[in-house]
Amino acid sequence: MGLRMMGTLVGWWVYNLTNAPFAIGIVGLSEFIPAVSFALYAGHVIDNSEKRKLLVRGVSLYLCAALTLLVLSTHFTASYFHNHTIAICIYTVIFFTGIIRSFTGPVFNVILAQVVPKTVLQNATTWNQGVWLFASVSGHAIGGFLIAGIGNTGTLIVICSLILVAVVIMLQLDAKPPLHERGEKKTWDSMKEGIGYVFKTKELLGAISLDLFAVLFGGAAAMVPVFARDILKAGPKGFGFLNGAPDMGSIIIVIFLTFFPIRQKQGKKLLFAVAGFGTCIIIFGLSKLFWLSFAALMVSGMLDGISVVTRGTIMQLKTPDHMRGRVLSVNSMFVNSSNELGQFESGLAAKVLGVIPSVVFGGAMTLLVVMATWFKAPSLRKMEY
Q: How far is the C-alpha of 246 from the C-alpha of 187, rounded, in Å?
């Protein structure tokens, strides 16, 4: 929840410091570059490390990043530094959070597989996604309300408090040692083994590729600050609602899937869900009504929730225990980082095409990606588990 609030705050903060939609894209690029650069090495480290210690260390470093942003948000800093200087400092902090995330992000899913018996792993994955999405929607929506009510500095105090609570909770976990001896393989050989496994497992590769390009082109969320302030005239509160709308939809569908899981033709339904997601992004880009924009984003979240649960289940069921760190890091490199690259693409497209055409273009490209995947990846289309 704290990290989602931080992401919400940084987008709004940087846009107000610079008044440039492209600046929002630079935030995404600042996190994307280190997250991708360190991903393969992070997977090797995760598989050869004690998981709890690595997780606690990473979240503690997130706390340090949040405290740095807290200092940058104060009136004292604003009185001594120009807005563009503060924005550059924010980009620097986000760059370091990208490094942290490359190690910390995959560990959450690796630990899940070590805590939960394999017999209930599929259902546990759905519950895990539900809890994550609840935190996400809470962080997005509450973040917008806090920015409106207590400003950037007050919001960052709340963020630091939440991350501190998370550190204390994670300290209660039992140690999770590596499942094989350290030094078993050289670092480069170990990294190649992880990425090689993904490329030879067609269901994993197809699902990762589909999400990579869909998120890359369909990342309308990056432009929500612009739509909220300048197009829909909704202000910080409306920004909070719009930011939280996709996650509200996702959590609704994840709760539904927890009790009524998809039993057959999961691959085909995954493709239909991503196509529907692209259609919703086009509607959002064209809408001039707040309620229609909110509804389009919520439905896009519901469809994305189907995609998230399906992909997450494939990742957990298709990955051997001793390779989870490396495989999930490859997934993080191609999928999770596509959010930041998509944010940069959205900012660049907005600069070149304009805000509304860039969002419509992204939705249309998502539909083209689904059509290409339908014909080029028949194993994913026919996949069932």
A: 39
Nearest-Å Rg of the Cα atoms of the chain is 20
Q: Is 119 exposed, middle or buried (0-12, 13-18, 19+ CB in 10 A)?
A: exposed
Structure tokens of 194?
Answer: 């992880």
Range of the domain at 315: 2-175+184-381
Of the candidates 353, 345, 35, the one whose C-alpha atom is nearest the C-alpha of residue 219 is 345
CA distances from 357 to 123, 274, 289 (A): 40, 20, 17
Distance (Å, rounded) from C-alpha 248 to C-alpha 144?
14
- Quote the CA–CA distance of 377 and 205 in Å, as a whole number: 9
* Helix (H), strand (E), coil (C) string for 99-165: HHHHHHHHHHHHHHHHHCCHHHHHHHHHHHHHHHHHHHHHHHHHHHHHHHHHHHHHHHHHHHHHHHH
**Cα angle value 217/222/224 (rounded, 5°):** 120
Give me the amino acid identity at 159. Answer: I
Number of structural domains found in the chain: 1
- Cα–Cα dist 276/299, whole Å: 9
Q: Predicted confidence band at 259 (pLDDT cuts at 50, 70, 90)?
A: confident
Residue labelled with tokens 């500095």:
153
Instruction: Determine the straight-line distance between the first and last CA of the chain, rounded to whole angstroms.
Output: 31
Cα–Cα distances (Å) from 316 to 101, 123, 142, 289, 326, in that order, read 20, 11, 31, 40, 13
114-159 tens-digit pLDDT: 888 877 877 787 788 778 877 877 787 788 889 888 989 999 999 9
Cβ–Cβ < 8 Å for 8, 144: yes
Question: Considering the entire predicted model, what is its pTM?
Answer: 0.70
Mark out the alpha helices in the chain (DSSP H runs): 2-18, 21-37, 39-47, 51-72, 75-80, 83-115, 121-170, 187-200, 202-217, 224-226, 235-259, 266-286, 290-318, 324-331, 337-353, 355-376, 378-381
**Measured CA distances, 324 to 34, 40, 127, 179, 315 (Å):** 21, 12, 19, 10, 9
| Each residue's pLDDT tens digit, 17-39 | 888 877 877 887 788 788 778 87
> What is the domain-level CATH number for residue 349?
1.20.1250.20
